[in-house]
Design a protein that fits this description.
alpha+beta; six-stranded antiparallel beta sheet; 15 strands; globular; binds pyridoxal-5'-phosphate
Length: 285
């Protein structure tokens, strides 16, 4: 079955799907994106993802390309046409197509909208989570507006490749003050030896992850103590547990950071429980 993408008003075979070479997303990374998990053919936490998308667009002064109800229909249709049961749906909106010039197009052009979806292997993800993953740390080198989910991901690409080159799954950025910010495509968490769950505040240095926000509710329901504060790699090495969160991975236990085993070197109990509980709290629609 060939995969189907939505591109600016049309559903097309993925191999024929294309944007104009003067699309500002292509030339300037002048655009934003969202990724929603799909469970049972339905989107997980769609309203929160759309609220974040609207915020990203506002921050970049990109107009809303279509009414939200239509956008939802398009995303559901891409999921349906690709017969996705478990996977992710990807939405990208750029400022549109215009002759190359750094300033915003004048007159105004319509933003470009692209939606794709793909199946993920549930059993494989579960097996990865059951084993846990390794992370490395690397110097933060992104622009300060990482709160906006832009398609400008070159530092993230390089950090992920650095992790792969070192046999790890993910890289955690460490800022100039020596604190972990987040992963190349996930939020970073540790659990202290006295059972406190620690993650950086969403106020600076990170993308306010939707999975992170839901997990904060899960933690409260499990009567676990949350501390939103900075932590260093040294504190992480000494932690009882570590894990990462994102829409595509939900909770992925981390068992090794910079070559140092975390806790007993196996996925932690809290991370494993959070992974199991997550979808009871997520809005699936
Ligand atoms: N931080 C970064 C840099 C990301 O790219 C992502 C997700 O792609 C996240 C955090 C987690 O966000 P969410 O839970 O909304 O997927």
């Amino acid at each position: 079955m060939s995969r189907i993408a939505y591109v600016n008003g049309q559903y097309v075979n993925l191999r024929d799907a294309a944007v104009n070479v003067e699309d500002r997303g292509y030339q300037f990374a002048d655009g934003i994106y969202e990724v929603c998990e799909i469970i049972g053919g339905k989107m997980v936490d769609f309203p929160r993802h759309i609220a974040r998308m609207q915020r990203s667009l506002r921050e970049l002064r990109i107009a809303e390309a279509m009414p939200l109800t239509s956008l939802r229909v398009v995303m559901q249709e891409v999921i349906r046409r690709n017969r996705i049961n478990y996977g992710i749906v990807y939405l990208q909106i750029s400022r549109g197509v215009a002759h190359r010039d750094h300033g915003f197009p004048s007159p105004y052009v319509k933003p470009s909208v692209v939606v794709t979806a793909k199946s993920l292997n549930f059993a494989k993800n579960q097996a990865t989570a059951a084993k846990g993953v390794k992370v490395i740390t690397t110097a933060e080198n992104r622009w300060p507006r990482v709160d906006i989910k832009t398609v400008g991901l070159l530092p993230n690409v390089l950090a992920r490749q650095e992790a792969r080159d070192k046999g790890a799954y993910e890289a955690w950025y460490v800022d100039a003050d020596g604190f972990v910010t987040e992963g190349a495509s996930c939020n970073a968490w540790i659990v202290t030896k006295d059972g406190k769950v620690v993650t950086r505040t969403a106020a600076s240095g990170i993308l306010a992850g939707i999975t992170r926000a839901v997990l904060i509710e899960v933690l409260a329901s499990m009567q676990l103590k949350l501390e939103e504060r900075n932590f260093t790699p040294a504190e992480a090495y000494d932690a009882a547990e570590a894990f990462v969160s994102s829409a595509s991975q939900i909770v992925m236990p981390v068992i090794n950071i910079d070559g140092k085993p975390i806790g007993d070197g196996k996925p932690g109990g809290i991370a494993t429980r959070l992974r199991q509980e997550f979808h009871k709290f997520a809005a699936i629609s």
